[in-house]
Amino acid sequence: MTLDWDFHPLRGERVTLDLLRPDDLDDLAAMQGDPAVCRYLLYEARSREKVAEILERDAAATHLAVKGDYLQPAIRSADGRFLGTMYFELQSVEDRTAEIGWILAPHAQGQGYATEAARLLLTLAFDELGLHRVYAELDPRNTASVRTCERLGMRHEGHFVEHMWLKGEWTDTGHYALLEREWQAAMLPRQA
Question: Which PROSITE patterns match (predicted)?
Answer without folding.
Answer: GNAT
